[in-house]
Amino acid sequence: MKGVLITLTSILLCLTWMSGRALAATSDVNPVTPSADLEHIHRIENGLLPGTLINGQTVHGMKLIDRMKHYKVPGVSIAFFARGNILWTRAYGYADVSRMNAVTPKTLFQAASISKSISALAVLRLVQEGKLKLDEDVNVKLTDWRVPEGEFTKEQKVTLRRILSHSAGLTVDGFPGYLAGEPLPEITQILDGQKPANTKPVTVDTVPGTIWRYSGGGYTVMQLLLTEVTGKSFPDILDQEVLRPLGMSHSTFVQPLPKSLRRGAATAYESDGKPIAGDFHTYPEMAAAGLWTTPSDLALAAIEVQKDYAGTSNKLLSKDMARQMLTHQKDNWGLGVTLTAADHPLRFGHGGSNEGFRCDFEAYIDSGQGIVIMTNANSGDAIIGEIRRAVAQEYAWPDFQPEQKATIPVDPATLSAYPGVYQTTVGDVVLIKLTLKGGRLYLQADPFGAEPVLLFPESESQFFAEEGFSITLNRNKDGSVTTLTLHAGQVHEAKRIS
Length: 498
Fold this sequence. Notes:
By secondary structure, this protein is an alpha+beta fold. The chain has helices at residues 2-17, 35-45, 64-71, 114-128, 160-164, 187-192, 216-230, 234-246, 259-262, 286-289, 295-310, 319-325, 380-394, 412-415, and strands at 25-26, 52-54, 75-82, 85-96, 101-102, 109-110, 292-293, 338-339, 347-354, 357-364, 370-375, 403-405, 420-426, 428-437, 440-445, 453-454, 456-457, 462-464, 470-475, 481-488, 490-496.
């Protein structure tokens, strides 16, 4: 019966992709949108750009609705802001395909790891209020659970500053979430890796402050600290310190999502267009991944940080605290946000990747411009990149422009050593499949959609895709290929398993 239901859903989805009406755009911000903004929107919707261009290639902008079909992304929601105001929003496609619920600017999406940026704002507020200290050992105030002490913490300690900048030496990069109806662990069970928790214990395995390494586990330690210091639930803390002061009325950290909000929330989808079992996962790791929100609400938070940084508002943070947040702590990370390099126009942001949801926000300090893009599919990253590049071209941003590369011919005998299945562990297990067809190499992996992606050779071992990622095939001394390196924002090593 389950197989029949999946088949029916897939058929309906295919019919949906063929319906132009299903991908119509909606807007509810600035009902009388200025004609200049409408022109910007039109060019963006029809001018999506690949991540990499082949030298000499003529650039043809792609239509957003066509790319949604290509990547099997049911819904996209966007908010664009500048100089303290949300200038326009657009929403495309379906929040839920089987129910034919259209996405609107008020549709709730899981913000995934963007939750960390909003959680960081609450921490910095509590620091301002004197309830927390950025550079104090978190074990000073933790009671129900404490960071395990050992050889790595003899001299350097786990602090909030290091947790916020992913330099605390803590383990567990991300969380897969829990299926609807599954038992949910208490926060101390998550931290100890005890069932029903589905992740390993959070420990310190390197000296705090020495390296940058992404850690959702660290933010879960922070979540516990906030609740113990305030005596309140984490959703109540965030509501009081951030959501209500900013007017983020379409946002909640409550997990599982309350039934009263379910009708206005997007269903999560896999890269092949099938819905996630139970519609979406639950994330008790709220500080790291638990926020449900809209692009407009996230834009309000980014706008306030811009204002606080400039000293034109202190609704949330003082000018000094906002500047600490956007100061490089470790590598290109501030407190809860990524930052551009020190010699580059200052931009802060964060991406998000929960099961069936992909999202991103970017905000500039000097121009005051920024964008939030949210999708309800595992393949959403690909279209987010294309939208972001179209926006960058339209508004002359210094970042997110397509890269120019040249290709070379490669002997078919060389290519024949590469096909196979490779596996990397980055949170969830990621399988990368390489195939050879017509003398050309193709890659298929969940983050890049359900269809194989054509790879172009820039050397005998280095290949790139127009989607903006590249791979390096690593040969052993005997000429065999047993590993590859994926360059897609971060560097991931993959081992050949077949």
